[in-house]
Each structure stands twice: as structure tokens, then as C-alpha cells.
Amino acid sequence: MRGTLRADAGAAPVEGALVALVDSAGDVAGGAVLSRADGGFRLTAPAPGRWRLRVRRIGFLPSEFGPYALGPGRDTTVALTVRWLPVPLAAARVVADARCRGRPASARTVALFDQA
Q1: SS3 state at 11
Q2: Contact at 8 Å (CB) between 17 and 35?
């Protein structure tokens, strides 16, 4: 199964959304992928049958689409639209401090995350 994700406002492609095939019990099967910069994605069903697509991304309403009948040798293409979910954030006050106190443990964690 392949497809594209677009946002409802302006039809911009949605990059970085987690797209998964979901079985009739609501379980993710066959893994999940992240949508590309152009909103595109491609998944392979672990078996023929009726599958739903589950889409999750911060800033958008969680969505499910389908069901779609998938079978061997058949390539199904879909164009999906997901809705923005504005999240109001409380104001934050930032105070700068010019003193250097060494490298905190959290900085090492961020460095490891960046390397991964």
C-alpha cells in the first residue's frame, strides 16, 4: 500500500507522520513508517485481508482510514487528508545565565540522541 498525506489547510504535504497498518482488532501489524517530505509513504501488509491505516503526528488529530482490501500482487494507492490540531502552549519565561557550570548530564543525553 502506498499513499500521500496532506494537511487540510492548504493541502501541504505532511512529513514525519507515523503511518501503520491496523488489523480488525485494532492492533498494528507489519510495522509502521514515517511519511517523507513529500507526504508519501509505503507499507507492505503481512497478509491479504482488510486493513485500516492509522496516522499519528504531533500537531494533527489522530486519524484512521479504511478499511482497504489488500491482496497479493495488488498495489493500492490512497491520498489521505489529516486535520491540524492547534495546541495552545502556556507562556514561558527564559532567563539567561552567562556562567559556565560544566556539561550537565542532560547535554550528554542530547548528544547521544543526536548521534542516533
Answers
A1: coil
A2: yes
**C-alpha angle with apex 75: 70 to 76, nearest 5 degrees?**
65
Taking only the tens place, the pLDDT of each residue in 93-114 is 888 877 766 665 555 555 555 5
Say which residue the cell 500537531 belongs to. Answer: 59
Rounded Cα distance, 114 and 116, in Å: 5
Torsion angle of C-alpha atoms 98, 103, 108, 113, degrees rounded to 10:
10
Q: Tell me which residue of 69, 88, 90 sits closest to 78, measured CA to CA.
A: 69
Whole-structure pTM value: 0.72
CA-to-CA distance for 116 and 106, rounded, in angstroms?
A: 15
Q: Give residue for cell 492509522.
A: 54
